[in-house]
Amino acid sequence: MSLSRTQSVRVAAVLEDCCDQLDILGHTLTVQMDRERGTAAALEKARLAKLRRDCQSISQQVSKLHLELEEKQSLSSLLQVVEDEEQKKKANNTRREEKINMEKQKETLLRQKEELKLKNEKRTELHWLAKDLNRQMDEQSFKTANKNKLMEKKMEMQLQQTQRETSETEKLLQDKLELLQDKVIKERRVHEEAKKFLQNRHKELQQQLQQWQQQTTQMLHETEQQLNSVCCKRTVNLDRLMEMKRMFREMEQVVKEDREEQEKLRQQQALAASATKLQAWWRGCMVRRGLGSFKKEEVKKGKKTKEGKKKKKK
Questions:
Q1: pTM over 0.90, yes/no
Q2: What's the CA gap between 46 and 52, in Å, rounded?
Q3: Among 95, 198, 105, 91, which Cα is nearest to 144's?
Q4: How many Å is the Cα radius of gyration of the chain?
Q5: CA 292 to chain centre
Q6: Tens digit of pLDDT per residue, the chain (314 long)?
Q7: Dist CA 274 CA 221 (whole Å)
């Protein structure tokens, strides 16, 4: 974006005025920061320091633009600054989005960890329930065995008593014995059925426990993979951030060196311009006063008249 000479001079004058005003504003901010005292003014100091840094950066950009206008009569540095600011905004937005995604992933991982914890608690509960069922089954089998033993003892005693009694009582005892045997058989069947039911239930619980263990191991493996991927992304982002910081420092050093060279060039040009002006003034003084090599030669009148007469005679 090139400008004419008059436009560049006008814009340079405006920019120089802006630079002076920014310097005055920065000085006033430093004075105001020095006046702030106490812990309550810490936020105000931070805000004033940020404003001062912004003023300094804007003043640097304005001075750079002023030099470019004086030398090249263009505003390419302003466009470059705008592009740099847009890139910085994009980088900040991407960092913010990555941070939000990291937080969301952390939340999901915490939620999955809580779910795994609940499942582990349920698994322990089922384990203790299976142990309790095994204990109850063992107690019930022990009770049935004792009951059978007691019944057999009672039957033996009744048989001994029936042998002593008469035949009529023997028939009654046989009937009672048959009834008792039927009861014992029924109780044994009930005991076997309960035992089978408890064994089947125990197998189902073990299978369910194994399934849950497999699911928990699979979920743990998936969460570990997710954590590894998140850590890799974080390291990549950190490396990218360090590379950007290094590039920014290098660019800042290049800008600083360029600014110093521009300042030296401007001083040399100012010295050359002042020297040329001084030489022109001195040459004018020498010419006006007729000094040195500019001194006028004086011609005598007698010689002129004699030469004129000789010419007439001829």
A1: no
A2: 10
A3: 198
A4: 54
A5: 77
A6: 555 666 666 666 777 777 777 777 777 877 777 776 665 567 777 777 788 787 777 777 777 776 776 676 666 666 676 677 778 778 888 888 888 888 888 888 888 888 888 888 888 888 888 888 888 888 888 888 888 788 878 877 877 776 677 667 667 767 777 888 888 888 888 888 888 888 888 888 889 899 898 988 888 988 889 899 889 988 998 998 999 999 988 988 999 998 999 999 999 999 999 999 998 898 888 888 887 777 765 544 455 555 554 554 44
A7: 79
